[in-house]
């Protein structure tokens, strides 16, 4: 919910119909997310049906404040706005806040990271390498 | 099949992404640096993700018992409709980047137009994919400039790649019978309409990269009708190995 991946959840008779949408087309987590939802609902005593939808296309704007907080706590810097995002990814600006020491003295290591949705950064104050969630609009 | 033209049209789009995705996937663990390795395989993953959406839709249109996996894995060489450009090998990093750049510029313009299609599924896939492709284009454009305007050696190798791959660019704007049928129904993109725009975009970046724009007017085509270069068979034997050896295997 807080990532904006779960779009709707409604009852149709006794069955919960849940629509989920991928962050990136090739997101390998979608099957796991679908299975987890199914399992959680089953444990709560509900039958469910999971549907993968593509439209409207996911955007980082759908990540809630709570979701952003959870990302930061996990060690992933939350997405900046589109303009700042361009500045850090293309123009070498130092605007991403280090998830470890909160310094903004951070630099881009690679536009692509461990998954399609992230870029790699490093903090020049505490030296911590960390992921940044790229802005997607 | 009731809607053979739409089916073939979707394969034409999807096969480009599948074959290019496979080429980029070959670089897993073999990229020239860790960052470029991750970038190429990330792009590959995006393309494979897009391909799944297209093939799932194609399987639905086919309306028989074939699945997205059958379509992806079990066709013969002549039944793939990708353009020749995307099947060209990773001769060296310059070739990988030039191939990517020449395709990304096309892909971006193509998806921009596909968003205006009368087919809602294709519109949804296009809207999703174009966000990813803008990242791809940014990556290949940056590297093309860096290689072209780099050392004597990187410039020479990149110019060589541009000269060699140039011959496959014209085919991007060739339309098949299925394309034309779908264009008249307002479903397909009329690629000829953005051809001038494509070469303008490409030439501007080549110039900025201090590379020469090839003057050759000799172009190769055939991929869209299933007539491929010698490279595709080898690529498919890699791609299809598991499904052919262990039929119906799943992850
Ligand atoms: Zn730090």
Task: Describe the structure using short key phrases.
heterodimer; A: alpha/beta; four-stranded mixed β-sheet; 3 helices; 7 strands; 24% helix; elongated; B: 251 residues; mainly alpha; Ferritin; binds zinc ion
| Average residue pLDDT of chain B | 96
In CATH, the homologous superfamily of chain B goes by the name: Ferritin, core subunit, four-helix bundle
Quaternary structure? heterodimer
- How much helix is in the residues of chain B? 55-70%
Structural class of chain A: alpha/beta
| Sheet having the most strands of chain A | 4 strands, mixed
Number of domains of chain A: 2
Helix-strand string of chain B: HHHHHHHHHH
Counting DSSP E segments of at least 2 residues, the number of strands of chain A comes to: 7
Question: Gap between N and C termini of chain B, in Å?
Answer: 30 Å
Q: Helicity of chain A, in percent?
A: 10-25%
Classified by CATH, the class of chain B is Mainly Alpha
The largest sheet of chain B, given as strand count, sense and whether it forms a barrel, is: none
Q: What does the radius of gyration of chain A come to? A: 17 Å
Q: Give me the CATH fold name of chain B.
A: Ferritin
Number of folding domains of chain B?
A: 1
What is the arithmetic mean of pLDDT of chain A? 93
Explain the overall architecture.
- The complex is a heterodimer of chains A (137) and B (251).
- In chain A, the strands form two sheets. In chain A, strands 4-7-6-5 form a four-stranded mixed beta sheet. Chain A has a three-stranded mixed beta sheet with strand order 1-2-3, covered by helices on one side.
- Chain A starts with 5 loop residues before the first strand and ends with a strand.
- With 137 residues, chain A is α/β, with parallel strands linked by helices.
- The longest helix of chain A is centred in the first third of the chain and has 14 residues, at 30-43.
- Chain A has helices at residues 30-43, 65-74, 82-90; strands at 6-12, 15-20, 47-52, 76-77, 106-110, 118-123, 129-133.
- By secondary structure, chain B is mainly α.
- Chain B has ten helices and no strands.
- In chain B, helix 2 (34-62) packs antiparallel against helix 6 (120-148), helix 5 (93-114) packs antiparallel against helix 6 and helix 5 (93-114) packs across helix 7.
- Classes of the chains: A alpha/beta (137), B mainly alpha (251).
- Bound molecules: zinc ion (ZN).
